């Protein structure tokens, strides 16, 4: 057994002993027969001296709690790699969020941040980290029912939460349990603001900007596990972003059925072919936060990635053909990619309910809130996300929450931590993974 493996085993024991939670974690023997040869490249959050073999964590989707967004039809599920500690993190988080008795549990009631879908998921993930640190179960508060929280009253119910509307429940408890027999909970911005640790419920609203609590803070319950990992310490928080996204984004049966219907309607009989590159181009209101990247830059990076893959073996073991799956909200970008003769481009129309004559820079949060259909935006975005995750290599910009969401899910539940990712704004491997 390698020193890294031994350290990881000790970290698992420490996590179980110090957390206060009891759950089964069985290391299963692999069936006899030839094992897939670990190939590809270490994930971009791993230390520079970690080899591809040392970085290889065989995918174990069968050990995920029920409901995770795996893809059994994807070959990577059987032969791919996931981020270090993924199974343990998912099982621990599930156990934390499913207390034996909701009447005796303590809660963090989270009011979601008003933002785009990717940012929303990341803020929820940090709230989950805070809840784990405080040994409290996180539940979502219902409403307010405006479009930027993506709760559609007519589709999901008057008092539905985001997870009830689209995803598997984050917890076996609900906001009703958190508010039962209790006064209006005190809202906090950091753990130091809790005056009474015996309080049944505390609440948190929106984003994390407290002076004494970093939005990159990882719950200390994971410290021993991470210290034994191949991950760069300054990027432990990105590991947690990936783990929390994998736990939160678990489409429920109704959402999956609706996505399947939309795929038949919007994507026809097509499929994502082996070796396809996922390219996500983020335009629109992103120009208010960072400099937008021109379409030609994405195409150049995709070309560089295609040439570099002569030395890489992807999840399908075939050298990729010149295929791109393009996800973007900009119709001009779709037209620019379709005009490239050397690429076969697939895409879906991301109908957001915003008028076609509204330019990308005019798509402000205020205009989107007024004009967008939140249900349509969420379902079409999840369909696009699912198709992107079926690809075998990735191009994007990690300054975008949505690009990071693709990167996080491909590295965990979709078993593609070993396949290449190239950033259109920075050198490869990327050094800046944003907040």
Structure description:
- This protein has 435 residues and is of the alpha/beta class.
- The protein has 2 domains: 96-247, no CATH class; 251-423, 3-Layer(aba) Sandwich (Rossmann fold), CATH 3.40.50.
- The chain is built from 16 helices and 9 strands.
- The chain has helices at 3-19, 52-55, 76-79, 86-97, 117-133, 153-156, 162-166, 175-179, 223-227, 236-248, 253-267, 295-308, 331-338, 365-371, 374-389, 401-410, and strands at residues 107-111, 137-140, 186-187, 201-205, 277-281, 323-328, 344-347, 393-396, 421-423.
- The strands form 2 sheets. The chain has a 5-stranded parallel sheet with strand order 7-6-5-8-9, sandwiched between helices.
- Helix 12 links the parallel strand 5 (277-281) and strand 6.
- Helix 5 (117-133) crosses helix 16 (401-410) and helix 11 packs across helix 15.
- The longest helix has 17 residues, at 3-19.
